[in-house]
Queue: 2 jobs
Job 1
Amino acid sequence: MSELGQLLKKARLEKGITLDDMQETTKIRKRYLEAIEDGNYKILPGNFYVRAFIKSYSECVGLDHNEVLRLYRNVIPASQVESNVEPAPRKRNGIKTTDRWSRRVTTIVLISFFVLIFGLMYYFIEKNKNSGNNNQNTEEQGNRLTSKVSENQISNASASPNLNQAAATPQPTLLIVPPIVKLTSSANGVDYYNISSSQKIDLQISVPITDECWFQIDQTDIATVAKKMVEQGTLNKNMPNRSWTFDHSVSLRLGKASAAQVKVNGIVIPVGDLPNVKNFQFDLV
């Protein structure tokens, strides 16, 4: 190591500056800085740059570059303009830019995921709320029908008190109670309905002439839970509606539920607003 190199290295170490820091500050390649400290000027790109590099080195470590060049002018090679200077590597911002974009993309993906989760939760909450309202409306409709029929029968009986005065014994009034269709539960994708005050199940399915829906009807044995297919087919503009009458429990499977209207004993059964498969079980009780 030369005397000049020792002087420069000592000043650098006293300042606590590493060669990497100096390379970043002076833009001189690290191996050239090491060559200056070792006095190995042949490694440098040319004698013209020796003085310039020593000047930059001295300024970086706080030395007077003019004094350093004057004291060691005998050991510093004479200046000679040469080409092919090998520039110090500059740090590129490509990696930082890539990392920045990666963080942005990750943030966008996370925000989209949470928005999707909240959207799905809101959808299912609204769907369950609407299903509960439909079931309540069905029960209220059945109760209103029952009350209306009872009132009509009482009114008719009161309006004609003198019709049977000649008879020794008054004729009893026949009270007709309309059938009641009630949703009892929903499990495993099946809506279960009980039909009471009736000895039969009148099933009607219809679709608009601009849509279609396939169906399958199975006879159900409640005791064994066994099913036997009764009929399957498709309702469309050529056959927009069908009706059946059963004296036993049946199950219904719709292929595009939102396109169909289902009635049991004249009561509309909610099918939902999604074009997916929907299953029903109707039991006489």
Note: The helical segments are 3-15, 19-26, 30-38, 47-60, 65-71, 94-159.
Job 2
Amino acid sequence: MSVIDEYKSFLDNGKTERECVEQIVSLASKNGYKDIASCSTLKAGDRVYVTKMNKSIALFELGSDSPEKGMNILGAHIDSPRLDVKQNPLYEKDFITYLNTHYYGGIKKYQWVTIPLAIHGVVCRKDGTTQKIVLGEDETDPVFCISDILPHLAKAQMKETASDFIQGENLDLLAGSAVPAKGDDVEKSKDDSKGKKFILQILKERYGIEESDFGSAELEIVPAGKARDSGFDRSLILAYGQDDRSCAFTSVKALLDTTAAKRTNCCLCVDKEEIGSVGATGMASHLFENALAEVLARTEEGYSDLALRRCLASCSMLSSDVNAAYDPLNADLYDKDNASFLGGGVVFNKYTGGRGKSGSSDANAEYLAKVRAVMDKNGVSFQTAELGKVDEGGGGTIAYHAAKYGMNVLDAGVPVLSMHAPWELTSKEDIQQAYACYKAFLTIDQK
């Protein structure tokens, strides 16, 4: 398969963090990586991975030098904006049964109505068993939808601002419908909840799930459908979750397709970036340093707090994350001389953040020069950019969470059009160049 075909397959089979980690473990295992828990000692050439709660993963290939001298790190995130099913979600209202949701990450709520949606995730029962759910992707599956008001009755709605005319509490998934009773029994039948009861019966028979099991479930609502070529020339890819799985996939593939020499190479794919990198599986946690501590503890030199700190401070990292592609139909939002273009290659962002660079790591010039040199040496196409005009907004990545250790960090990723929409656009050329960029980066200081 080509890089593009592999990428599209990764997107199709990785619409949640858990699904991405499952795929990465499978790919890594085929390339000689082992779960670190199965290794008592590590030496140069060994390949291991560390997972956290099945939603984040770090992969390491040890070089001949001590890890204390630092590593080359590719760091991406594998969560994407979506809708999450609440813990008490199922209800019936006037013969229609709904699943109550809570949106995750920065979305335009109106983009999620009236499109085909699928349910992905897990339900964990009290007996310790786990039921995996993927419903809405196979052509024989039912799909789901959030309804909207017809234009004929939307006079009041159309006067609202775009952020308000679809309320978050109204992003509830239509899960089924019941047939009202006839005549005088209509009002009485509203209280029967027979539609909800039927849905629960289906869940029980098909998946062994009780209503109370929603309380220990992680179910994500995502767009139904596969990644597709886009445009007459097929130059683009239209797919869900390309922020940031376009960078996660190419980072993982780059690591698997290279061999460490002196310097340890690492790929880190984390969760929760879209909501501030919080929680046990986000970059703001001790997830990465704990994983690295496990690696150091198995090397000949062993673990010490000083060795851990020296390693972290000596690392070079690309924060593999996307950038906003220039949109000619909304050109006034961009500084065109400092914008990234579809097809222009991988994008380097010296700093991200908002307005006055708030939330930015701001890479130093010496490191930028070093990265530029290795890209030119390997024939990688790249562009430098910011995320829109200075006062228009901005965004952050995991870069500043890594920079706190004192390592060199630069944002480098794929330009995306319609970022955070249910369906995002990328250029095949940029996916190829991101892969080439990450491979080239892993050669830094290897001789």
Note: The first strand starts at residue 34 and ends at 35.
